[in-house]
Amino acid sequence: MKPAFPFATRRLMMGGLLTLLAACTGAPARQTMDQHGEIERVEAYLNTSRGLQASFVQTWPDGGKGQGMMRYDPGRLRLDYTTPGAMKLVAASGHLLFVDHRRDSVTRMSLGRQPLGLLLNQPVHLGGQIAVTAVQHGANSLQVSLARADSESQGILTLGFSDIGGKLSLLVIEMTDVERQHIRLDLTDTTVSGQPWPDTLFTLSPDN
Question: Number of structural domains, the chain?
């Protein structure tokens, strides 16, 4: 059965933490005035989307699937898996906890040098320490790729949004590794209540 941890390969379960996250290098994009405006919109979305909830389908590099429910507040994220089994990932306060109830295993790590941490900076500021390496705006869609400005080889994080009537909605979270392998979360039924989730959802404890 495929490992549940959404941003790692089987080597995580064998004790090698986040080998997959040694990701490809990108160069910061030259920003036009229009792109600068789009980046500000993404920044505002990530900083204000309190109480975000979405169903997710996760795709591993070999095409395998997992699914469950994602919850997001600015600076913190939780994934509760229903497939392939009872598992959870909680990321907050610069750290990550992954619990696989099937194996009674717990993994803890820092997000300081990992692409997922780019999503969870609080507040998010796209520029300076977080480099925007690409901006693509299509019909009713917007995509931005991000990397740490001082260590782009640590990973590329790409966020895809629907953009309808000037309103953004997060649809895709994707990371690309140094071997050009992709791990992707596709989101559906995304809602934003405007009210933050209870702090207990993001406690870095196996029992929460």
Answer: 1
